[in-house]
Amino acid sequence: MKWRAGLIAIVWSVLGGCGNDAPDVITLMAHGDCKRLIAGVSEVRFEDLAGIRGSQLLMLEDGAPAAAPSSEPDFRLIAVSAGARPTPGYALELDGARFDQGVLVLTIALNEPPADAQLAQVVSHPCLIVATSHQRVPIEVRNSEGVLGSLPPVSAPSGQ
What we know:
Elements: H1 2-16, E1 25-31, E2 40-44, H2 49-53, E3 76-81, E4 91-100, E5 103-111, E6 127-132, E7 139-143, E8 146-151
């Protein structure tokens, strides 16, 4: 549990130090083979990150899996998957983040391998996981061709 708190503290200290009006969004993971994600945009949990890569979270010293957080996280994890690609070498990249009429707009770029690259004929599934502290706003993910997908705002916990 301490490793999770430490990671989150590092992430938000980096975000908080930006000192401008840009939305707080960072890339947590850009991976070339995320078979467990369907193509498009989805919200994922912190506990799902290792599985998305095809691995497992580290166990605690006593061999038990890490416990789920006791409260809701103060960040959102957004997964973007490009779906199946014919070779390795494809990558998704966060190109920008901005607010547009109350919507957090994330711009994603799909980088392709060089045309003359000699690559294995293996299907890959590039993905990108970004984190943001903006929970109560809708999120829209776009690329150069248009809207890839959107997510509604997270509802406020009861009593707030």
